[in-house]
Amino acid sequence: MSPAHFEYRPIDQSAAQIRVLTLRPGSSDDPISCTLTHHRLQHETNYEAISYCWGNPNRDHLIYIGTISLRVTKSAHDALRHLRLKDRSRRIWIDAICINQADRNERNHQVQLMAQIYKGASRVLAWLGPASSGSDKAMKLVKSVSAKSVAKPAIEVWHAVQALGDLMKRPFWSRTWILQEMICPEKPPLIGCGTQWVDWDTWASASPLSLGSELEDILNPKASILGGQTVEAYSEALEVFSGINYQRGLTSGLHQHQGITDLIRLLTLSMNSKCSDIRDHVFAILGMMHNDSTIPADIQPPKPDYNKRVRRVYTEMAKFAIESDKTLLILSLRTH
């Protein structure tokens, strides 16, 4: 007799329900044991939301929902194994498991809620992946570089550049969905690699964004030593960090919304990122449009729907931008 495999119980889409995974305690080598429960998003629900890179889509690892097995990707399995606590349970929202990926209608519904899911989380955990050679040292160096330091010793900056280079090259940073996952949370997300964690503000203080001219001085004369890939990784990271920090400033009220300019900035970041479905370049930012006070109340952004063809998705996005700002600036944006 073949073992039973987990079957999802439908969520109530009219009630804006989500699933929350309770990760039971265990040691690193124990099978991953969980429960899945349904909750209304509007109600007080305590959970942490995971941001991570899906990687290989093959579902060749097992976790257990109660006593029933569920096949998951290696990246999801690795994330749960590293996030599991030894002495107590942990409540988590992770898209690959909390959404029935085989149900397109449910995916459409849940993607529409994603911005609210990440905003409503007690904390967003941005997990870069398992530790690798030098990654623990890199994370410790991140913690040691002070955001308030005006004159950093050249050797400190040099080591930070080298150590962070490998982390910057991880595919996590080039993901389309990182924009929504890092911008929407009210609290600074936690950035983790292996078992080492720092918050977003600490990470940003040790990033190219804060190193500024010191980084520029180092990259130009020593690019041949760092290697072209590391230099490119820092250049791309600078764009991502700048965009996310600016958008987080909009969310917190530090900056004022600038209508179509903000939308084009977000779309540009999204178009330059990577995703497996090019419709996600649009879908990944739609949830953030609802908080833009410059958009007239009677004009609503289109809803994510994976039943729509690519051409329709991009056409609806352009129409929304034109109607909300009464300009054609959106047409100047280059797409793939």
From TrEMBL:
InterPro entries: HET, HetReg/Transcr_Mod. Residues 47-181 form the Heterokaryon incompatibility domain. It comes from Triangularia verruculosa. This is HET domain protein.
